[in-house]
Design brief:
Blueprint: H1 2-8, H2 20-23, E1 38-43, E2 51-54, E3 60-61, E4 69-70, H3 76-87, E5 96-102, E6 110-115, E7 121-124, H4 131-138, E8 151-156, E9 159-164, H5 167-171, E10 187-190
Parallel strand pairs: 6-10
Antiparallel strand pairs: 1-2, 1-5, 3-4, 6-7, 8-9, 8-10
């Protein structure tokens, strides 16, 4: 899929730039638990029920009293209230706190970089994340990258739109005007230069 996207978007000059409104936008963002996350569950006054649990690939967790509780797609607060509800069958007035220790995120809350980055990968989106932050996380551009023909794929209301990026200008020339705010689900595609 990435190869098709890269070949279909080989020139960013025909793509629009990210609008100023989107360039600086900060989405209303609340982290939701994803498969692969690591959770710390604390049950006040019941240390034997407290502990760390992984979110399985199916999005569920197993605690000391409850098996197969859906965690993926919920905030830590929503999951804590659900655990309190289930635990209330066993203990009086449970007070539960859920903390996310290891972050993977759901695919909709990841930012992906593919193509000619030093280390293409997916990372969890974090509030106030910028394109420069993403490039630092992946180690920059590889020696064959054509950063000024990079493409940002962004989804709004189920529709994907592609925008041209100027990564060479940002990373090699220090043009901070080429930086922009990222959004959950963004995909950055970096083509290789043709010699």
């Amino acid at each position: 899929m990435a190869v098709a996207l890269v070949s279909g978007c080989s020139t960013s000059s025909s793509l629009p730039s990210v609008s100023d409104e989107q360039r600086l936008a900060q989405p209303d963002y609340e982290y939701v638990i994803g498969a692969g996350d690591s959770l710390q569950i604390f049950v006040w006054g019941n240390e034997e029920l407290s502990g760390s649990v992984p979110v399985r690939p199916d999005g569920k967790i197993t605690t000391r009293l409850v098996e197969d509780l859906e965690a993926s797609g919920k905030t830590s607060t929503e999951l804590a209230r659900e655990i309190e509800s289930v635990y209330s069958r066993y203990i009086k007035n449970p007070v539960v706190t859920v903390m996310v220790n290891g972050f993977v995120a759901t695919p909709e809350q990841q930012v992906r970089i593919v193509g000619a980055g030093v280390t293409p990968l997916s990372i969890p989106y974090r509030k106030h994340m910028t394109l420069l932050d993403l490039m630092v996380a992946v180690g920059g551009l590889n020696e064959f990258a054509d950063g000024d023909k990079a493409v940002l794929v962004r989804s709004f209301d189920g529709e994907q739109t592609s925008y041209g990026l100027k990564l060479d200008s940002l990373l090699r020339d220090g043009d901070i005007g080429a930086n922009l705010a990222l959004m959950p689900g963004d995909i950055v595609i970096i083509p290789e230069a043709w010699f």
